[in-house]
Design a protein that fits this description.
four-stranded parallel β-sheet, globular, three-stranded parallel β-sheet, single chain, alpha/beta, 23 helices, 4 domains, Rossmann fold, 7 strands
């Protein structure tokens, strides 16, 4: 029978999110769809290793009176939903029933719909509103005198116990450091390269760097290294000004109004840069994915959103396009030895392949050892007291692999995933971003 056919026979496609329809917000219809999809997941179970959502669901089913989804109390569905951090791996790497299959399973966007309904009801913690307000936190914590205080408090055991009691931020979670010398401040002192830019079939050679909150306030060195590497390759780079957060943290919270507000600001700026002949690069995979996938699915009729979607690139995706056109500088001065390379989830689901690995593998005397497992960090998930232990459990196979590899460096395109691995290793070693490794190899 047609409905029994196996899936994964065709390339996955995706429907718009549909947040502008009445059905999206109808709680009764939402729970009907949750039961339908949970029943399909229960009968399949191939996503068990991905995140906390699936083990939680299957335990609820197995401990119910009926051993089926109909035996699970509806209020317990929220336990499954809360564990989903929208990594999207189930959709793109495991699930055989995604559209165009007639069962039409989109687990991550169903979880997003549930989070949005929950948020609209006001069922949200102050902590979650606070830690997803990355622009406000970054602006405050990067004020010079405050930066030192925030970083000291974040690494003080007594202060962290207090944060756990008051805000339920886990005392062992590795909170990001802030830098008062932000990327935008650093960029004011930069003298842009004078290179004559050569365009290729797919790249203009003129790049707008969307620094992201993290790249501006937390690790501006990554953006600085990216600019150096790109300029070394004859590219012109300008840092995007007046941008806001990409919206991914608020998306994971279900605050779709905040996502829309950030979109309205950012798309106006980025679309104008595209019109001026610039390509866009974002060094944080989640931010890149936001513009490549999530915003186009939320606003499929917005021509400027689609324009930005078609002009935004992962840094190594961009460098590989330059290499294909014979425009990549391959004069590397320093071998890097063995590199443990964690492949970030939000980069994997961009469907670009392992471009970071392929570029780093061009460096003589360098061996890349990819690790295709989720780190379990998820932006804010690991900071929450109720989820931190699960986040560390998800990360354990990655940490074990890094230990087994005994590499000279460990790295991830997602800087936060890199630091989550650092927390798991707990040996004093630090990750180095792939673009920083590339700069090291160039000797610039």
């Amino acid at each position: 029978m047609a409905h029994n056919r196996e899936g994964s026979l065709e390339a996955p496609t995706r429907h718009p999110l549909g947040q502008d329809t009445a059905e999206f917000w109808d709680e009764e219809k939402l729970f009907g769809e949750l039961e339908r999809v949970f029943d399909i997941c229960h009968g399949c179970r191939r996503c068990i290793s991905l995140c906390g959502s699936f083990p939680t669901l299957f335990d609820l089913v197995d401990e119910s009176d009926t051993f089926e989804v109909d035996g699970v109390a509806k209020e317990d569905y929220w336990r499954v939903i809360d564990h989903c951090f929208l990594c999207d791996l189930c959709y793109l790497t495991k699930c055989p029933y995604v559209p165009p299959h007639e069962w039409n399973v989109d687990f991550p966007h169903l979880m997003l719909r549930a989070k949005a309904v929950k948020f609209k009801k006001g069922d949200v913690k102050t902590r979650d509103k606070l830690i997803t307000s990355t622009d406000a936190l970054g602006k405050f914590a990067s004020i010079p005198l405050i930066t030192q205080t925030v970083n000291t408090v974040n690494s003080n055991a007594a202060a962290r116990k207090l944060l756990d009691k008051t805000l339920s931020i886990h005392p062992q979670s590795l909170l990001p450091k802030y830098d008062s010398n932000t990327l935008l401040k650093r960029d004011k002192k930069r003298v842009p390269g004078k290179a004559d830019v050569e365009a290729t079939e797919n790249t203009t050679g003129r790049v707008a760097l969307f620094a992201t909150c993290y790249g501006n306030y937390n690790e501006p060195q990554i953006g600085e290294d990216l600019i150096k590497v790109f300029e070394h390759n004859g590219l012109q780079v300008e840092v995007v000004k007046n941008a806001q957060c990409c919206g991914m943290p608020k998306l994971e919270l279900g605050d779709l109004d905040a996502v829309t507000k950030a979109k309205d600001n950012n798309i106006k700026i980025l679309a104008r840069l595209v019109d001026e002949g610039l390509d866009i690069v974002a060094p944080v995979p989640s931010c890149c994915l936001m513009f490549k996938q999530e915003l186009p699915l939320m606003f499929p009729g917005d021509a400027d959103v689609i324009k930005v979607q078609q002009a935004i690139f992962d840094p190594f995706e961009y460098l590989m396009l330059r290499k294909t056109a014979g425009k990549l500088n391959t004069e590397f001065k320093n071998p890097l030895g063995k590199i443990s390379y964690h492949v970030a989830c939000h980069q994997r689901v961009q469907r670009i392949g392992m471009k970071t690995r392929d570029i780093l593998a061009l460096i003589p005397g360098t061996e890349i050892l990819p690790i295709e497992r989720c780190s379990g960090h998820d932006g804010t998930y690991t900071f929450k007291s109720e989820f931190h232990d699960t986040a560390m459990k998800i990360c354990k196979p990655v940490v074990n692999k890094v230990k087994q590899n005994g590499a000279d460096f460990y790295t991830s395109d997602c800087a936060m995933a890199g630091h989550h691995i650092e927390a798991g290793l707990a040996d004093g070693s630090k990750p180095l971003h792939p673009v920083s490794l590339l700069r090291k190899a160039y000797g610039i």
